[in-house]
Amino acid sequence: MTVGEELGVSQTREDIPLKNGRKATRPYFCNEECFSGSKYMNIAFGTLTFIITLALLIQIYYGDYQVVPHGSVATDSLECSEIGTYVLKEGGNSIDAVIASALCLAVSTPHLTGLDAEGHLLIYNHKAKQPPTVIDFSYPKVLPQTLPRLVFGLAYVHQQYGSLAWKDLVLPASELARKGYVVPKTLVEAITLSKSEDLYGHLEAGQLKTHDDLAKTLDHIASMSENELLDSLKDLREPLTSEATKVKFGNFDVFLPNDNTSAALLAFALKELDSQNNSKLISTKEENIYRLAEITKNIFTTNFSEPLHEGTVSNIAVIDKDENYVSMVTGMYNYFGSGDITSHGYVLDVKSKDKPCSRIALIMKDGNSICGRRIVFGASNFAVALQIISSLLIVKDNATESIEAARFHILPDGTLGIEGTHFPAFNEEVMKYLETLISKPVLLQEPYGSSNIIEKFKDDLSSHSDSRGGGIASRF
């Protein structure tokens, strides 16, 4: 039984097709914005009455029936995606879903994130049409001593944007820690790669793992009153909140964190790629990959004034029924952070500002149409983000194809890394070209950093969790 089934949530997942049948369309945001006029009112009212009646009859016959999802959550864990959609189902907004999902991931993917992890969010309301807000909780100098770093960041965004009670967002993660979660393959791979067998003992993919001390810690965090949370936040010495930077790419607005070295490199790369695309230099998928590899390699060697560190990455993408979009990236300096577990059951991260992390949260939208494509995702570094954006907007692949496509990485020494065991892989023609940039690209070991995505066009919503992270997106 999945988390969603246990909580009684009626929803769909990306691994379960939607039921066949006639669309039960509601007057969603884009419909209201794009159509008006009294001459349509009589027809619209009659049509709407017929559709609602039909939908009710179908629901009575087939059960809880959804064709157009109200919202979606995409994470590296099915349990956490389902907890996020449960929060949306209960009337929470995107921030509420992100908080519950992030705490869940701190339980079920301890190799990637934890209560002491860093990260940032982009928060955007498509109805307001204002640039997204960036909230960054990466740096230790802004943290009070009373809360771990991730909890501090989530408490801050809850105080600013949350709608449900704090306790209701923390307890699902506490219950998961107490009752146990299914160990993902990526966790086992990370333990082997980082030689961290002493942290959690010998684990096998598919077994049930519990964290009793962590469950007690989450129970305590859930029991904190609003006043206690506010007292924890009052020591904040500098703003966490800023306005996102907008970069034009073709007809699209790409929103990025404004104080982020990796985002600055991505902005530079997007401008170069846009120029080459407008000059008709890119006509095939293979040529697109060549250009991307050249651009990222050149940027790394000529514009890399500040070293970046690519730590772990866990990406949460959420869209709710009220057009609130959130992309969150979080992670630690290494797999399992410092490798030290506190008596409270969570791993401490490495607190270092010497090398800013490369992970990026992104939100994109069609700059010419309010009902055009809107896309929420995150990436482990600017090279991965550039490849996904190019696949979505130049090659015209769909969201799933763009996320699952083969990727190259620029390693800290400037060499190219290839995900050697991911499928689909680069074809022979592409590999021969990449070898002209560097004689022998490095074959990277699993697990690979994942990117999770939600895309909306008009009122149609699709979502996908990267197979690299082992998660499954959830919709309701």
UniProtKB/TrEMBL annotation:
Q: A Gene Ontology CC term for this entry?
A: plasma membrane
Q: Which sequence ranges are marked TM in the entry? A: 43-62
| A single GO BP | glutathione catabolic process
Task: Establish whether keyword Transmembrane is in the entry.
Answer: yes
Q: Which controlled-vocabulary keywords does the entry list?
A: Membrane, Transmembrane, Transmembrane helix
Q: Which InterPro entries match?
A: GGT_peptidase, GGT_ssub_C, Ntn_hydrolases_N
Question: Which molecular function GO terms apply here?
Answer: glutathione hydrolase activity
Q: Which domain of life does this protein belong to?
A: Eukaryota
Q: What is this protein called?
A: Uncharacterized protein
